[in-house]
Sequence to fold (581 residues):
Amino acid sequence: MSTSNAELQAWINQVTRDCRPDSVHWCDGSEQEYQGLLERMVADGTLLKLNQETHPDCYLHRSDPTDVARTEHLTFVCTQEQEDAGPNNNWMAPGEAHVKLDKLFDGCMEGRTMYVVPYCMGPIDSPLARCGVEITDSPYVVANLRLMTRMGQAALQRIEREGRFVKGQHSIGDLSPERRFIMHFPDDLLIRSIGSGYGGNALLSKKCHALRIASYQARTEGWLAEHMLILGLEAPNGKRCYVAASFPSACGKTNLAMLRAPLHMQGYKIFTIGDDICWLQPGEDGRLWAINPEAGFFGVVPGTNEDTNYNAYAMLNRDALFANVAVTADNQPWWEGKKDGKPSLDWKGNPYTGGNGPAAHPNARFTVSMRRCPSYAEEAEHPRGVPISAIIFGGRRARLAPLVYEARDWAHGVMVGASVASETTAAQTGAVGVVRRDPMAMKPFCGYNFADYWGHWLNIGAQLKQPPKIFHVNWFRKDSDGKFMWPGFGENLRVLEWILQRCEEKVAGRESPIGLLPKAEDLNVDGLDLAPDALAALLSVDSGEWREEMEHINEYFTQYGARLPERLRETHRAQAGRLAD
Ligand code: SAT
Ligand code: MN
Fold:
């Protein structure tokens, strides 16, 4: 096969010459092609068939044990000037990066098939959607892309019509962490990734394209590429509004996006539009419109059950690809938090003894098409997207941050987002539970200098006649015994209810130096088993601790030097002042 797009054809010819695959396969995105890939992978052991009676069309992939999470220290943004990548990114000069990568890619596909995968991020006819092509030697990556993106013929046609696309060159190489790099060349709309077959490192459409390259592109084109879920919230009166919410990896975006109303809040319904990435653009009507560029979910498996995420659990018994879960004696997938069955083999395929760490890897993942989600919303296919009423920022913080508060205005909201901190999780290689600054949950994903990114956020806000209200939430506050103070999961709907009421101006808030908090009587806690005083603690602002926090935020902002927008500096100063009063 070939393409009428000369740039694409030339690039494919070049990569073929360099990587020297045995054959080249252009992916058309058909069901037949998908089934063929699965069969081939079952035959060579890349995939294991799970119990087809209990889990039809479900498969398990066991990663190389050194390749189970994103590797941020091997991820680079290669702009001409280091300053443009900013202190928030690892940087390498493009020339140096290409020399390194050329060596690693040289002949790396010998004996393998090279797949050419055209894909579209967003509904195929959406003006907000953008296309890309991933070249990979991993059939496992291709199968994941088929579930996660609109991939194949239609995407290629759009590329041929438009002429513009992001290039992603990927090889699993030899899977060695010593020869692993995930490099971005935003000026050339190019990604080159080698040595990993894991999600965010290898499914280049996701974090590499839809966040790092897209955020860079969005800055010049006047939109935002964000690490956010999108949900539709339908109130008992039938009115629907849309919320975009940003949390770091493995902090519950998928759970919130698919939340099922608990018994006492049956009038409410949540519809899922996206669980990880959101592209936002000011509309002609002065509102902020959002699309989900993806077509599937790549979610954390451990902890998922009927209670924590009813809808996700319901998706996991058909047409799902699992990575790094354990299996039961009758070959069903098993993970920590699953309520039935018991593990027979752990995620590495060794007999599970109980003494050797968890049975499933804590970052074990599922890949499943969005259409399999019971709460999936048709609006996910609307070319113009959905209008956003509220933006939520959040992190995982045992202390300090209240359950929920509302920013005073857009600029203050940008400061709230820019100051987010969160404890690290198993989604990235390295220590778990360390608090780090993770502005807008984009620390690992912003493709350019954060200072410029915050400036861009401020500019976008200035264009909105009806900007969304901005909130901050923290489901993860702990008491002095280390126990979570808030039940989380489905009960988070209570907080969404308050947010909705604030958007509709149905309730007033309580002023505090950091923003508006709910009045205790406005947050529905009926039937909740909260410890005495827990609600007051969850909704309290400790001025002393917050004064310290403002110092830390100031130190963090100082790294960005003169590039930090003055407006952000002022907003910080004003809040520090309110805390001092
Ligand atoms: O591997 S991914 O980057 O796609 C998942 C995550 O860490 O958010
Ligand atoms: Mn994510």
